[in-house]
Amino acid sequence: MQGLAIALRPMGIGVLLLHPGWVRTRMGGSGGISPGESVLGMRKVIDKFTLEDSGQFIQYDGTELPW
């Protein structure tokens, strides 16, 4: 994805990788955050996204995750 971000940057296209966090679902179990909290956080990250952020791996709460 970082390679794609580099290739698309000259065209003004950004690549955003989002991690939804550990979400309470049938698959994720009873721990973690609610689906609504995950979606709300990801929407905030998307709203703040700029081309400068392209290629980063960002968690729902805005924390950058290391590759």
Report on the architecture of this protein.
This protein has 67 residues and is α+β, with helices and mostly antiparallel strands. The protein has helices at 2-8, 35-48; strands at residues 17-19, 57-59, 64-65. It has a 3-stranded mixed sheet, with helices on one face. Strand 2 (57-59) and strand 3 (64-65) form a beta hairpin. The longest helix is centred in the middle third of the chain and has 14 residues, at 35-48.
Q: Which spans of ≥5 residues are poorly predicted at pLDDT below 50?
A: none
Q: How many helices in DSSP terms?
A: 2
- Tell me the strand order in the biggest sheet: 1-2-3
Distance between the termini: 11 Å
Morphology = elongated
Give the helix proportion (percent range).
Answer: 25-40%
Beta-strand residue percentage: 5-15%
Features:
67 residues, 3-stranded mixed beta sheet, alpha+beta, 3 strands, elongated, 2 helices
